[in-house]
Write a structure and sequence with these properties.
This protein has 186 residues and is mainly α. 81% of the residues lie in helices and 2% in strands. It has eight helices and two strands, in the order H-E-H-H-H-H-H-H-E-H. A two-stranded parallel sheet has the order 1-2. Helix 2 crosses helix 5.
Length: 186
Amino acid sequence: MNPISNLRRSLVSLLILVLLFLACASVHQAIGQQAQSQAATASQLKPVSLPHLYWHFLIHQSDLDVIASKLTAQGGLTLRNDLQTNLGFSDADYAPIRTSSQRLAAELDPIEGQLKSLRNSPERASQAQALIAQRESYINNEVYNLSIELSAQNKALLEKFMTTFFAPENISAAVPATSVAKAAQK
């Protein structure tokens, strides 16, 4: 064999090894940066408040009811009762939740529509803030009313389910001050 061709082969092999090493190092670095980014993002997450869990749960139930009514002939009842079944509640136990979900959806629909129209309008930020405050008020009021209507056991089961279903690792079970104030007035 020709010594020059052997040298070329050795250089090509060495070049391939160097390129493989650099590729592995950059992949390792990218994985490390991704892990650091995910850790930083996780530490920046804000806890989800209990009223917001109620909000999402109740709106989800309302959406299930709407979809189920459209699919009644095709097994909509199963979809409509999905959350109730997961909770193990009877129809009577679940009735206040269903009523609350329909009431909250009806209260929030107009507000959500107005907020969508203001989405790209920085000059109307104060109007958006007022709508958000109104939405928060409706949510807190509905949480308070529902907490009165549910038994202590069903309320505890519901809150445990919501925490597991909507925010398994990120919850702050803070009761809104308005609810505490209303309870003190009773």
